């Protein structure tokens, strides 16, 4: 059977700040992210399977990505926990804001690596993550491809 790629696109709003950066992004700001998740596999051939003809049910892929990424990152502010931003994070958290502390500089490049690891762990064994595209503005995005890693 042929290998088929399917893609589902997700949207979420996230704030961040890049500690030590020499431009405007050192300030707390946010983006309307679009995450394209592409998986690859062979369509189910068992005619008795309710998912016959599907690589993976879009609903199943949606559940994985929502639980691992969208529901966690949406309307949160992300900071590198290994920087003095941890003090700002604590202040925001104490005031009831949703804050995420991560082990990396929260750039699109590093976020897409983090997302790839989270998604790969949840996919069924017969489905592989092919690529991710994390778009932070209309003209800027980071991509991750399994074939490059």
From TrEMBL:
This is 6-carboxy-5,6,7,8-tetrahydropterin synthase. GO terms for molecular function: 6-carboxytetrahydropterin synthase activity; metal ion binding. The lineage of its organism: Bacteria, Pseudomonadati, Bacteroidota, Flavobacteriia, Flavobacteriales. The active site is at 25 (proton acceptor), 75 (charge relay system), 136 (charge relay system). Zn(2+) binds at residues 16, 29, 31. It catalyses: 7,8-dihydroneopterin 3'-triphosphate + H2O = 6-carboxy-5,6,7,8-tetrahydropterin + triphosphate + acetaldehyde + 2 H(+). Binds 1 zinc ion per subunit. Coiled coil: none annotated. Belongs to the PTPS family. QueD subfamily. One of its GO terms (biological process) is tRNA queuosine(34) biosynthetic process. Pathway: Purine metabolism; 7-cyano-7-deazaguanine biosynthesis. It comes from the Bacteria. Its EC number is 4.-.-.-. Keywords: Lyase, Metal-binding, Queuosine biosynthesis, Zinc. It comes from Aequorivita soesokkakensis. It holds the Pfam family PTPS. Gene3D superfamilies: 6-pyruvoyl tetrahydropterin synthase/QueD. Its cofactor is Zn(2+).
């Amino acid at each position: 059977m042929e290998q088929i790629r399917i893609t589902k696109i997700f949207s979420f709003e996230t704030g961040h700040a890049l500690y030590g950066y020499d431009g405007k992004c050192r300030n707390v700001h946010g983006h309307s992210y679009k995450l394209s998740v592409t998986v690859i596999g062979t369509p189910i051939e068992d005619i008795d399977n309710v998912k016959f003809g599907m690589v993976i049910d879009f609903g199943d892929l949606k559940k994985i990505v929502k639980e691992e990424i969208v529901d966690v990152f949406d309307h949160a502010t992300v900071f590198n926990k290994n920087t003095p931003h941890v003090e700002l994070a604590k202040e925001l958290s104490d005031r009831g804001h949703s804050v995420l502390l991560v082990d990396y500089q929260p750039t699109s490049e590093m976020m897409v690596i983090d997302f790839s690891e989270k998604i790969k762990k949840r996919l069924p064994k017969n489905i592989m993550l092919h690529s991710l595209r994390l778009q932070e503005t209309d003209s800027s995005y980071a991509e991750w491809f399994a074939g490059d890693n």
